[in-house]
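Good morning,

Both structures are done.
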Amino acid sequence: MHKRLPSEDLDLVVTSIAISQSVGGNLAEVFDKIGETIRERRRVEGRIDSLTAQGKIQGIVVSLLPLVVGLAIYWIDPTLMAPLLNNVAGVHHHWLHDHHGGPGLLLHPQDREHRV
């Protein structure tokens, strides 16, 4: 049966039945313990999935934050963003620093003191 339906839970049940047959013991207690183990495993897997999803959302928010702040500044006062958007040096600087932070700092070492 385990060959047709590979599952860690089924493997646990099959192994416990085999051990119970060879050693003896209360099979009902064994099944109770296996049920607890499977429920606990599912609970832990659900917790891991939720923490992983939380980390993914945090990554998306942090990635989009510079864009949102830039758009907000542009909406509030477009003249603040004009030098960044209207000349080649500003676009180049924006591209290097916001999209490739490390290489931007290496190419423009004088800007290191402006970074927090």
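Second structure follows.
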Amino acid sequence: MTAFLLVALAAYRGARRDAQKHTCIYALGVLEDVKRRWAEENSKMNGDEVRDSDLRKYFKGGIMPSCEAGGTFTIRPVGTPPKCSVKGHALPEEAARSATRPR
């Protein structure tokens, strides 16, 4: 019985980590979409700096998305996808490429 519980606990932890990773990547995508919208509305170009305060108005209650695993987001300049401090939490390559396309 103890072995079964250990296996079940390990599976639960793995599933929880996976769910947190996917939720984080989704939040990074939302953040990138909002950053693009802000850049278009404010005539910003690739390389222009973006601050949290620039984007807060796009989120309900001004609350920025965050990583459920405790990572820290770095917004980064226009044309560069946002980043999470947790290893493996990153936008897929295709999304990262589309974030850097020139206007």
